Amino acid sequence: MSSRERSLGSNSSPIWSFLLIILGVLLLLSNFFLLGDFDIVDLWPILLVVVGAQVLLRGDILPSQAFRTFGITRGSIESATLEINAGEIDVAIRALQTRNTERLIAGQFANQARPELDVRDVHAMLTLERSQTPWLSFADWEMGLSQDLPWQIVASTNFGQVTADLNNVIVQNALINTGIGDIHLVSPSEAFEPLYVRSLLGSITILTPLEHRVRISVEGGRFFGVTVNDDRYEEIEAGVYLSRDANDDYPLIDIVVMGTFGDTYLS
Question: Would the pTM of this model clear 0.90, i.e. be above it?
Fold first, then answer.
């Protein structure tokens, strides 16, 4: 692994460093009998506080480890499926920055691992599994998708966050699911089937670019709230919102949002 990968892939947090310093000072004082009957075992709840602060500030329990970049050429591929099971890893999905017809996908993945690729006729199936990566690799996964073919996207995490900017991606259909984690979705301008977005415990933010025709249906219980930008959406029936000032030349995109605990933000 190059020094560039190590420097880019490491994103350490000072929280753990402060904890070690504090524990070291307390042990030193205890060894010199300056703390009386102090027992360092009584400080174990501090670990819970530190872990909670780490998750709140970074979204990860441990500092990120090194990642490796990857790229896969398109060849004769005319459609593709991207399936991600990320566990506790944060995931970012977007379109490639340029319309590169030779590149199918590019991004960063766990160190010492590559996406699994299965090609059948002109369809590619790419799979990224947390179980197939080193267990100490906590670097975020990032994917840049070709803009020139339709994608089926299935992305799930247990504790991670999913950010999907699909503005320039052609979507066949999509399912984005988190257990305990937020979802940030930018709607595509073209989707052949509905997009399903759901989270058990986390907030869901849907951003609709100007002129996009998007219909969002929100399904949730009493503990799942909805905050709507009235300048951008009109509620056409209970729990169903239609984007304002849409361009009639754009196809209608259906997004279904489902949640149990948390909030939905439509902006």
Answer: no
